[in-house]
């Protein structure tokens, strides 16, 4: 059986067989293997050392977008070497992948395979300083806060880089002169496009970083200023401490660069000094050289490797089998981690086991076998200071947003409390009172209030005009009673929508009623029928029908009770099988506002938090500010915490507003513990915020986020028992309802407010538990989505 060395080559038996001894000398094989391993380890160490000496070193970089079936290959085995203290001009046609390459270098995107070394470390590796203040990054988009002044912008980026405000102010003076910036007090949104780009460049130069990565910094800049920017770049690279990578479409301006990388088809056509390029390809200008090389590449006359062989490959050494990279399979290996926080550190891979020596050769911080807790970077005070300050000012500078944040809960609560849930009054009721004769037009007819039996025991009395007594009580509940002379006329009016119910009193209503009261068990059919009030109901609105039925019934109870009382009758006049007593919980007059209030309060707070969170996260991301902040060293965790801090304050104001309007202004029932009510409302807002994180991770555009938020708002309103009892839903929907985030919390709040229950009741504490579980679920989802989307 052949033995295998590290590189997979067999060691021949002849190599180790002693001619005088036919026995296999195992120790010789082991020695040979150890020696080869040692040689390889030394080579790897020297490779690592060589790559660490460069400012940036990219090897065999593969990057593609799209799907496996329809891939869009952007980087195709690209090699790049940027020595320290140089200006590196990255040139190439629009769409060739310059920005993609730069975002891989700054750690914002992952390669599908290949290696990147930046300032001696791997982007994202803890301790590498990349992303972080060692880099100054100017993205292609301006990536600034429109509401901030130039000075405030600099303070934000300066604080992130660990500068003091004084240091920032001093640096601003220099940058204003260098880049001919307008007055630093001017708001960014009021600057011209070119001025904004210069502010963006100033933000990258501000903290004097070791590596400047500038994506088209001279767009929209006049030639004189462009020259002074280049002069400055030349000046700062002279000492060897600062390195600059710059992309531009003005090929000629890169004459001042030390090295130019001409990018095309996912690789470099050439990587050389401008003079050498012009000389070697006999071009009149760099543009000329680029054209020539492109034509050559198109014709396939030159193999790519031979073009670069003497340039790039001079620093190329045998590949390090990176434990995290399977360079053969671009789908599997990925190198860069996220930003050193807990958001995304592990690389994809097949779990390739590296040789121990290779693992040792890598910097210790790059050993990705570290546990999750070790990967969590501690939050930095100056980062949090910058983020919280920025979040506050972004909020308070944006008047429209502020009006929305404060105005929406106020207006929603006012509208809800004024518009929803109150008892409908003034419903038109048609009355045909045959007891008062056909010509009676006075619906509230006169009756003798003291009409009592002579002897209550014998019921010997001539009860009169009980219909008038009844209508008197009914009018206290529903005042819009209209008298009609005949049933047919009243019915015709009801059919035209002019009455919600038609009440008909028979001619001898009172005498029949008296008969029925005296001996209910022996009353004949005629007596029963002529003592009934006929009610013809408009059934189109079930809520109204239900309420009118209740009014009709209660008015009758009140009229008979009143008669019992004044006549000192021993029992209630009419006994109904169900008698409505004072409620155990809730109000005597049914009030839908109290029922729906808890759900509405939670919904307002939840979805406002969702909208604000997703809106601000997406705006930051789409304007490139998020990317820029991340490259400056801010971590995802810090961004989340800073957002939560500011948002919590906003939510406290919103919660206070909503509760004050609901309970103090409109008198919604509040029987339970106020502290727990406030806490539940706040954690519900926190839950909405985390849902906002999920939305912003799922959607790329604000518009899509709006659709998603709306698309979840409506089902939640319908299914969480906010506007209708869950017990009245379809059984399957009931199960769905119980796992939604607002259901249990609504029940919990309702129980605290109306029943006065405390936190010890299961219905109440289950609302807190459910909301907390949802917060954890949403946070986990956000983190997974960030991980999934990166790359
Ligand atoms: N997130 C993405 N998803 C899919 N394709 C992308 C993505 N980002 C960039 N691309 C595509 O990758 C290619 C390279 O884009 P990139 O922005 O890197 O080019 P560029 O050289 O910087 O162009 P320009 O000079 O115009 O800025 C383009 O075809 C672009 O459409």
Automatic annotation (TrEMBL):
GO (cellular component) term, any one: membrane
UniProt GO MF annotations: ABC-type transporter activity; ATP binding; ATP hydrolysis activity
Broad class of where this protein is predominantly found: membrane
Subcellular localization: Membrane
Transmembrane region(s): 595-619, 640-668, 674-695, 707-726, 764-786
Keywords from the UniProt entry: ATP-binding, Membrane, Nucleotide-binding, Transmembrane, Transmembrane helix
InterPro entries: AAA+_ATPase, ABC2_TM, ABC2_TM_bact-type, ABC_transporter-like_ATP-bd, ABC_transporter-like_CS, P-loop_NTPase
Membrane topology summary: Multi-pass membrane protein
Domain ABC transmembrane type-2 span(s) in chain numbering: 561-789
Gene3D superfamilies: P-loop containing nucleotide triphosphate hydrolases (3.40.50.300)
Start and end residues of each ABC transporter domain: 56-290
SUPFAM superfamilies: P-loop containing nucleoside triphosphate hydrolases
CDD domains: ABC_DR_subfamily_A
Protein name: ABC transporter G family member 20
Name of encoding gene: LOC112046232
